[in-house]
Design brief:
Layout lengths: L1 E17 L5 E22 L4 E6 L11 H13 L3 E8 L10 H16 L6 H11 L3 H6 L2 E5 L4 E4 L8 E5 L6 H11 L9 H9 L2 H7 L1 E2 L10 H11 L3 E4 L6 E4 L3 H13 L3 E5 L8
Parallel strand pairs: 1-8, 3-4
Antiparallel strand pairs: 1-2, 2-4, 2-5, 5-6, 7-10, 7-11, 9-10
Helix pairs in contact: 1-2, 1-3, 6-7
Bound molecules: adenosine-5'-triphosphate.
The site of adenosine-5'-triphosphate has 18 residues, from helix 1 and helix 2.
């Protein structure tokens, strides 16, 4: 079977506290977009559990360090199933880019494993299992648009981003998520977060100018003003789109009012040497 593992963007992202276990609490509005990895899974009952992975990107580990493999083993253990699982990932979501590609692959494997074995796990159990695999995995199980709290695992669906083009730009270089959280702790940047309600209200209004005003990502405040994500954001704003860095970066997305503006963004990014894709919001799905 085959599933699309959609990337997520954060329309709003505040860090609300640090937990004793080292995780951070967040308040976020997440939206899945059509940029996706294509995950294929084949599972056949066997005497002992095994999971192997092939992937279109050679730099990614294909052993149990890969979240897709981890998901297959975790599912079998929880459901009391032994199977020979073969997974293939055709990777399109850039790695460590703030787009939750690994979490999306992980969630796709959980969904497909549950389907392949006729739903041995109830939605709540699948959600719990997802939570243990990563903070963004529960959201990626459902996708669509949602307010997420806790470590990202408390999910409340909300009105989605209107059906507008979403340009995803790939600045060069990497940002370590752990380092980004460390900078938030050191600078106390989390204390100045605006409320989340203007974003959910803006989504309900379906008006792009209101959504643009409510875009917020605390991680933008802890990166240098002359860094690539900020330069990329400026290019997108100059094209007349609403733009924000996603997650802990470095990806930057832009919501455009129409295809023409999206195309203008893509061309301007290309002129400055940046790759990008034009995607669309995707709806939530039942698990
Ligand atoms: P995070 O914010 O959790 O770092 P991200 O969206 O920025 O997530 P991902 O593409 O999910 O970034 O990758 C984060 C890390 O997870 C990478 O270091 C990568 O090696 C590891 N990883 C494990 N499995 C996968 C996978 N299937 N796809 C991508 N990365 C994976």
């Amino acid at each position: 079977m085959k599933d699309f593992a959609y990337a997520k963007i954060n329309l709003f992202l505040a860090v609300t506290g640090r937990r004793p276990d080292g995780y951070h609490d967040i308040a976020s509005v997440m939206q899945t977009v059509s940029l996706c990895d294509v995950v294929t899974l084949d599972a056949a009952a066997s005497a002992s559990p095994s999971a192997t992975l092939t992937c279109s990107i050679p730099s990614l580990p294909t052993d149990s360090r890969n979240l897709a493999v981890k998901a297959a083993y975790a599912f079998m253990e929880r459901a009391g199933i032994a199977a020979d699982v073969k997974i293939d990932i055709d990777k399109h979501i850039p790695i460590a880019a703030g787009l939750a590609g690994g979490s999306a692959d992980c969630a796709a494997v959980l969904r497909m494993m549950n389907d392949a074995f006729s739903h041995p796990l109830a939605a709540r159990e699948l959600h719990e299992l997802a939570r243990g695999l990563g903070a963004d995995v529960p959201f990626c199980l459902y996708g669509g648009c949602a307010v997420t709290r806790g470590i990202g695992d408390i999910i409340e669906p909300c009105d989605p981003l209107p059906e507008l083009p979403v340009v995803i730009a790939y600045p060069h270089g990497k940002i370590s998520t752990a380092d980004a959280y460390r900078r938030i702790d050191e600078t106390g940047a989390s204390q100045n977060a605006p409320p989340i309600a203007p974003m959910t209200d803006a989504l309900s209004s379906r008006r792009l100018p209101q959504i643009a005003d409510a875009l917020y990502n605390v991680f933008e405040s802890v990166i240098d003003a002359d860094s690539e994500p900020i330069a990329v954001k400026r290019i997108l704003l100059d094209c007349g789109a609403a733009a924000l860095m996603s997650g802990s970066g470095p990806s930057v997305f832009a919501v455009a009012e129409n295809d023409e503006t999206a195309e203008r963004c893509r061309r301007a990014l290309a002129r400055h040497g940046y790759d990008s894709v034009i995607s669309r919001p995707t709806p939530s799905r039942a698990i």
